[in-house]
Amino acid sequence: MLRKGFSLVEALVGILILLVGIVSIYYLFSKFSEMDRSRVVHTCLVEAVTSAIKLCKNGVPPPSTFTCGNIEVSISSSCDIPQDNCAQVSVRGEVEDYTLELVQTACNIGGGI
After folding, report:
1. Rounded distance between C-alpha atoms, residue 99 and residue 113, angstroms
2. Are the C-beta atoms of 103 and 49 separated by less than 8 Å?
3. CA 11 and chain centroid, separation
């Protein structure tokens, strides 16, 4: 006897295989999205801290926050450079679970920094 169509079991197995494929693709997309967000946060953190350290080295106190798109980086700094002397300036940036601290030497010789 020749049957046309699928049995219920065959249809359920096909749906199960399709569902596993869809869930796997969704998982991959969510992981890639998470990795991309992490990369954007790192880039924003580096840009904020390097901008703040440049301000420190030029004698300008950096703001307490930098904003990159919708990411806000909290900045804390130590930028005191005595007149006619050199000192280490440090800037620490924090966003979400990420922290970056940059320390450089800056000099204030002859009235200019």
Report:
1. 27
2. no
3. 45
Sign of CA dihedral 92, 53, 78, 89: positive
Per-residue model confidence as pLDDT tens for the chain (113 residues):
667 777 889 889 999 999 999 999 999 888 888 788 888 899 999 999 999 999 988 888 899 999 988 899 999 998 888 888 888 899 999 998 899 999 999 888 765 44
Residue with tokens 């970056």: 100
- Take residue 28 and report the two structure tokens written for it: 């991959």
Contact of 18 with 26, CB cutoff 8 Å: no
Question: Among 60, 61, 64, 108, which residue's Cα sits nearest to residue 88?
Answer: 108
Q: Which residue has the tokens 């007149």?
A: 83
Instruction: Show the 3-state SS of the chain.
Output: CCCCCCCHHHHHHHHHHHHHHHHHHHHHHHHHHHHHHHHHHHHHHHHHHHHHHHHHHCCCCCCCEEEECCEEEEEEEECCCCCCEEEEEEEEEEECCEEEEEEEEEEEECCEC
